[in-house]
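Inputs:
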Amino acid sequence: MTTPDMQIALPARAENIAIVRHAFGALEDAYALDAQTLSDIRLAVTEACTNVVVHAYPDGREGPMEVFATLLGDELTVVVRDEGKGIGPRPDSPGLGLGLPLIASLTESVQLGRDDEERTEVRMTFSLTNAPHRYDDPSPEAAFDAADTPGAR
Amino acid sequence: MSEELALHSEELAYESSASLRLAKGPLVGPVLCRVVSIVLARANCPMDRMDDAMLICDALSAHAPTHSTDGHLAFSVSARGGQFELRVGELAEQAASRLVGDAVLPGVGSVLERMTDQLRIEAAPDGPGEELVLGLSF
């Protein structure tokens, strides 16, 4: 398994999402990414981190949020990991349930799952050469259709 | 800044911390500088000390990668109560003092010694190697 180029570990608090977002801006400095690609990456990573903060640790419990970025050739893989309760339907979700469809629209691929130690992972890949498919169908209805379960993370 | 605004911004100061592990390469400098700057900004660090911290980050990103044990560097950043601490880990044996010596500017001396209020070398908490611990007061 390839060792990530960047790992960030933080408490899963709302204010720490900004640190992750700011750190990902370094991709532009380091690899001269174009503004649109960088914006897509940052938005998707922000959404994934927001899901961790809002949903992973209920009842005010605090837990870790880890972000890993690995660049292989022209493909960037970003994994957002937490030790929370996992991804599932949440009827009482405070959000609109648009996070995952938005991530899907900004990435080449997205996988939700658990690692060997049962930690929840959102694994996103981005092509650094091809524009993602975000403009295929930009309507809000398409985003809603892409959500399997209303209120899902 | 008015007294009211100053009071308000003081109330908004956050204690923050972050851990980073970065592969040797072009990401080290930009990521370290960005994370340190946002952690310090949220702790209401004044600009002159922020400048000092950026010089420290530049020195570390220029010289620390040559002293890593396995091609990666670990950084731990925290700011609370007017104190900033930056730990540089995954350094080889004896590498921390060499790193301090490498970061020398003509007429200035070691940037890491001049800009910090605390500098100490500790054994790595897990396994061989060392950690360089830098402290800044603001």
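The mean pLDDT of chain A is 83. Flag for discussion at group meeting.
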